[in-house]
Design goal:
Helix content: 25-40%
Order of helices and strands: HHEEEEEHHEHHEEEEEEHEHEHEH
Strand content: 15-25%
Number of domains: 2
Radius of gyration: 21 Å
Number of strands: 15
Oligomer: single chain
Amino acid sequence: MYPLKLKDIDIKQFLKELEITPCRENGRFGIYISPLRTERTPSFKVDYKENLWYDFGIGKGGSIIDLVMHLEKCDSLEAIQILRSKKNIVFIRQNKQFPESNYSGLIILKTQNLSSYKLISYLQQRFINISIATRYCKEVNYTSGQKEFYAIGFANNGGGWELRNPFFKGSSSPKTITTINSCSAGCLVFEGFMDFLSYLTLKNISSPIQDSLILNSVSTLSGGKDFLLSHRKIHCFLDNDTAGKNALNEIRNLGIETIDHSESYKGFKDLNEFLTQNNLQRQEQGYVFVNENPCSARHF
């Protein structure tokens, strides 16, 4: 068991000492750019009340000791020694009280067809074909911390929603995979729904010809293995990062023919970044387009 005082070291203050600050926060939690990997969209959460962290990109989290183990790539004993060497008392939490009335969790209020100008504009900024997006996404109103928000929602198999807007990336419970069954022998695998929508936009098709598995996080991969095992060939469009490569290797270990398409967008974090940056470059060159997408997708 970890020493209680060490586990009570305030994660927020610890990160602040490392010059790592939240991109956004409320009284109960903060969302950070992950200190454990390279990313552009913040997906590292620190729960101020429980003094715990969770990295949605790699599906791992825990206490301050677990965080140091990941940061320093060391075992628990070494992590404890590192924390014990800290002399600054500001690290120690002061048993802060967080009234439950200030936080009620993320609750879905209603869903409707996408109509918000801001949400549609956000999709356009990411060069997603709107008619494709409206086929698979909804506009979702939800509450968090007793405040009401709205976001683009993408449903998963468990009845939960992946939620995105220009200022928020999260999900409602339960967190699980999304499968789209076309009764085909092949299966396309995407880490998130923005990559799935980007693929359809690049291909200029309204629905995939092959079955699709959208993980919604690489941490849910185990829940999609039975679906993958029902296919003869797997096409992976995962992120060009450590978590994506680890997921690719795990899929290859299933023993099914697996094709890695990430080389097609090498130099970009993911398929949507490839789509966005290429279109921005074309715009700078004076190319004007409305409904069609100029990026070639023949190699996908």
